[in-house]
Amino acid sequence: MRSTRRRVLGAGIAATALAAFAAGTPAAVAGGHGKGHGHWPGWGHGRTQAVQILSFNDYHGHLEATDDPLDEEQDPSQTPAGGAEHLATALAELREEAPKGRSLTVAAGDLIGGSTFLSGLFHDEPSVETLDAMGLDVSSVGNHEFDEGTDELLRMQKGGCHPDDGCYFEDDPYGGADFQWLAANVVKKSNGRTLLPGTSVKKVGGMKIGFIGMTLEATPTLVDPAGVSSVEFKDEVETANRQARALKRRGVNSIVVLLHEGGYQAGTYDQCEGISGPITTIAETMTADVDAIITGHTHQPYVCSIPDPKGNPRLVTSAASYGQVVTDTTLVIDRRTGDVDRKRSTARNVLVDREKYPADAEQTRIIDKWDTIAGPLAAQVVGTNAEPILGDSGTCRCEETPMGDLVADAILWGTQAPENGGAQISFMNIGGVREELPLEPKYDEGTGEITYAEAYDIAPFGNLLVSMDLTGEQIRTVLEQQYQPVPERGSRPMLALGVSEGFAYEWDAASHTVVDGSMTLDGEPMSMDATYRVSTLNFLANGGDLFTGFSAGTNVLGGAEDLANLVDYFKAHPGVTAPEDRVAGL
After folding, report:
1. Is the pLDDT of residue 448 over 80?
2. Who is most buried in 246, 281, 314, 396, counting CB within 10 A?
3. Last residue of a domain, which of 334, 362, 390?
C-alpha cells in the first residue's frame, strides 16, 4: 500500500489504554491550551515544593515555522505549530507559570541530525545556537547526534570550527553548546568511560534533581557504523538502574531519565491511548528509584503513567517532534527527604500554537543571520515535479513509498554507467528520505518547482553512493532483513527499502520473507546464483539499519555524494512523477 500521510501511528498499537494513574492518584492535567497551575497541589507549601520541568525531543534542526500540523488523530484542530521562534516564546511563557521561578528545560535527544536545510547545511551549528538562546539546560543524546560520528558530536558539545568547512563566521567561531548532552549508555571501548557525562544534577530551590541521559541501545544500527566504531551502546534499563544507584549514594533522591526511545499511542497529543512499543517494557522494568521518564525517538506525543516494578505510578512522556509540542511536568518534592511525591506530580502536553506564541525576536535574529549566507543557494531551482510525490521518513517506514522509490531511481541513475559502478538495481532506506515533494511551494518557489533547499531536506546526511556485486541469493538476504524482530531494531522492527525501476519482487507479510521465484529484473526472473551490480548508500553498505547483508558485497566502488547526485538527477529529469508500485505485498 502506498503511504501518503505525513506521519502514522505505527504498527502494533495496543487495543486498550493503560490507566492514567493508580487508584486515588490525580490524572495528568489535560488540555494543551490551558493556562496556570494554581489549582495543582504541592506548590511549595508546608513539607513539599514543586519544580517545573519543560521538555521536548526530536528537534532535528527545524528552525523555521514551515512544518505541517500534527496528524488529525493527534490534533483534530489542525493548529499550525512549531518553529524555533514560537517554541522559544512558549518556553518563556510557560516558565512564567513556574512556582517561584523553579523551572528547568530538558530534552530527550535528536536535537541535531536529520535536519532541515538551514541548520543541516552548517552541520547544525544553527540548531545549537537556537537551543542555547531558548535556555535549554540538559539533553540526552539520540541516535542522530551520531550521524557524523563521535568526533563531530564532541565538537558540537565543546566547540571549534568544522574540520572541513572551517568557521562560517570568522569573527564568531562556533563556541559549543551551553547545555550538556548526556550519554550514560555510550561507553568508549578504549577505557570503559562514557563518551559524554552520563548524569547531571541540578539544584532548584534547594532540591537536587538528577538527570540520567541515554540513547536507545540500537543506535549503532541506525547510523553509519564506521562513525561509532570506537564506542559501545549499553542496555537502557541496566544503565539507568546503575546510574540511579550512584545518584542515590550522592544524596540525590529525585531522579528523571531522559531517554531517546519511545512508544506509540492512538489518542490526541495530550493523551495516552493504548501505549505500546519498547518504552512500555523499559518503563515497567526500570528501577523504581527513577521518578519520571522523558522519552523521544518515535516522534509521538503522549502523557502516560506506567507502573514501575513496585507497581507505583510513574509519568512517562513524549513531546512529538520538531518543537511542535512541549511537555510541562510538575514534580512535587518532599522537602525533608528529597523524594518526588508521584501522586501529586502531574504533566500535560502543550501545543506550540504559532498564533498563541508569537515569534521570539532573538530566534528571528539567529534565523536571519544564518539565512543570509544560506539563502542564495537555498533558492536555486534544480528541477520540477508534475505531481505530489509522497512517503518520507515521517511514515511508519514499514512500506514501499513513492519517495523512497524515486530516491532509489536517482541512485541507480548516478551509478549505472560502467565508470560509475555499472549498477542494475538500487536500494534506499525509507528512514533516510527526510522529506516529500508536494506540488505546493515550501519556500518561495513556484508551484511544482524543486529548490536546492528541498533537495537537501530530502537527503541531508551526506552519504556516498556505493556499488557492489551481490548474488541473487544475497539480494534476497538483504530484502529479508527489512524485518528484524524487537529488540534488535528497537521500536521499528520493519524498515522498508525503496527499490529502483526495473526491479520487482513479492513480499510475504505473514512470514516476512521474499516469495520464492518472485524477484525479477526488467521483467525477467532472477537467478539466485547469478551476480548482479547493486548500488546504495554507504550508510546501508556499512550495515546501517541492520542491513548487514550488504557486507557480502564484492568489487565495491565508491561514488558521488548523495545530495549532489539527487540534485543532478532532478536537473536531468524535469517534471518527475510518482513511481508506480514495484513491490507486491509490502
Report:
1. yes
2. 314
3. 362
pLDDT for the residue numbered 225: 78
CB 200 within 8 A of CB 187: no
State whether 329 and 397 are in the same domain.
no
Structural domain for 137, as ranges: 48-362
Q: Which of 585, 584, 567 is nearest to 576 (CA)?
A: 567
More confident residue, 224 or 42: 224
Do 255 and 289 fall within a single domain? yes
Better-predicted residue by pLDDT, 22 or 45: 45
0.85 exceeded by the pTM?
A: no
On whether both 280 and 415 belong to a single domain, the answer is no
* Residue 35 pLDDT: 37
Domain boundary among 316, 332, 362: 362
In 177-266, which ranges are continuous DSSP H helix?
236-249
Which comes out higher in pLDDT, residue 312 or 542? 312
Rounded to an integer, what distance in angstroms lies between the CA atom of residue 492 and that of residue 71?
19
Distance between CA 207 and CA 558 in Å, rounded? Answer: 55
Q: What is the 3-state secondary structure (H, E, C) of 491-514?
A: CCCECCEEECCCEEEEEECCCCEE
SS3 92: helix
Residues 169 and 254 in one domain: yes
Q: What is the pLDDT of residue 543?
A: 87
Question: Counting beta carbons within 10 angstroms of the beta carbon of residue 271, is it exposed (0 to 12), middle (13 to 18) or buried (19 or more)?
Answer: buried
Q: Among the ranges 17-31, 156-170, 478-492, which has the highest mean pLDDT value?
A: 156-170
| DSSP element (H, E) containing 94 | helix 84-95
What cell numbers appear for 136 in the block?
Answer: 535549554
CA 91 – CA 347 distance, rounded (Å): 15
